Amino acid sequence: MTLRYLLDTNVVSEPLRSVPSQEVLHHMREHPTEIAIASVVWNELWYGCYRLPRSRKRAVIETYLKDVVAQSIPILSYDRRAALWHAEQRARLAQVGRPAPFADGQIAAIAVTNGLSLVTLNRDDYIAFQDLRLEDWL
Prior knowledge:
Helix content is 51%, strand content 10%. It contains six helices and five strands; from the N terminus they run βααβααβααββ. A five-stranded parallel beta sheet has the order 3-2-1-4-5.
């Protein structure tokens, strides 16, 4: 299979919720060889984990990241093409008075330059980016 979807941080972390969305979990199980995450998402996941005090919750998250995410989901880098696309979008959005968070721009750039749909539960974070295909698995 070829990659089709880039998962946002909120989608990848959905299985860790106390009551995860069954619809999101279904989609993740339905497309296991078609999903990837951005290196930026990988950073956000670990940053959130490291901010927690050592606890059972943190141990569960560390295990999920090491044994599930790292072992089964490709991690795509923010490369030269993504950086150029991101710079163009940042300049365009700044000119219209609508700057976007830097990390969201990086994630969008990785999706666009790899020809993937970005799956997010926060469409509003990405709607201003041009040529970005968005999906919501809820």
